[in-house]
Amino acid sequence: MGLREWIALPELGMVGLRAKIDTGASTSTLHASDIVPFEKKGKQWVRFTAHLGTLVQRRHRCEAQVVSVKTIKSSNGQAQTRYVIRTLLALGDRTWPIEFTLACRKTMRYRVLLGSKALVQAQLVVNPALTYVQEKPTLSLPGAQ
């Protein structure tokens, strides 16, 4: 795979996301705002707004079960507490579950960062000289006809 790839998050209803592959980051991160925790059937969940696109901002309202809450040290050295969710990632012709931390990435060029844990799970190899090697995912969204 290349340094940047098209992905989809079908369980969250999102397709056509550009992701930056960051082998130096352990965790994957999804740009989110308006994060509100709530309880559903005795489990902890979050509602949040996912932000898509760089030139044209699109917002997508999501809900996901919380896997954990982690303290993450960002690239600028600041520690931040983040909710962690698990959802399916579609990349090329592969789909597998990964964990994302939810964080504000509005100052970052890419709204999605794929860390090394996600790559190891799928046994993917990155060639940083390439970009958009994989085809755009064409999975149908849950409930789509």
TrEMBL record:
Transmembrane segments: none annotated. GO terms for biological process: proteolysis. Residues 2-137 form the Retropepsin-like aspartic endopeptidase domain. GO terms for molecular function: peptidase activity. Keywords: Hydrolase, Protease. Pfam families: Zn_protease (PF05618). It comes from the Bacteria. InterPro entries: Asp_endopeptidase, Peptidase_aspartic_dom_sf. This is ATP-dependent zinc protease. The lineage of its organism: Bacteria, Pseudomonadati, Pseudomonadota, Gammaproteobacteria, Pseudomonadales.
